[in-house]
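A further point concerns the way the authors explain their paired sequence and structure data. Nothing conveys this as quickly as seeing an actual entry. An entry of this sort, consisting of the sequence and the corresponding backbone structure tokens, reads as follows:
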Amino acid sequence: MKFEDLRVWQTSYELYKKINDIFGKNNYKNYFFGDQILRATLSISNNIAEWFERETNNELRRFLYISKWSCGEVRSMLSIAKNSWDLDDIEFEELYSICTHISVMLQKYINTIKPN
């Protein structure tokens, strides 16, 4: 098995593609905001990949938590985008829901790993 086979990684990758369509490149009027939300979203899938390659339970938990924290950052930024700019309700709800779903999946993985 490889990390690309994990549903949580696949879902986070899909989230990144959707976020990139809205906030990526020159699509969004606030470059710094777009850059930050893209980096936070990318952090979710990258830390899942790093988690998959780790050896000790403490390392596994750490990278899953980093991914989960990045989900929180993305949800916060989505709320800001909805309230401050022009992210419509449908886009917001879809992206926020995906983010929440990823957080739940990550927490389930975290709960299965016993600390060293």
Observations:
- The first helix runs from residue 7 to 23.
- The chain has a mean pLDDT of 89.
- Residues 3-112 form a domain with the de novo design (two linked rop proteins) fold (CATH 1.20.1440.60).
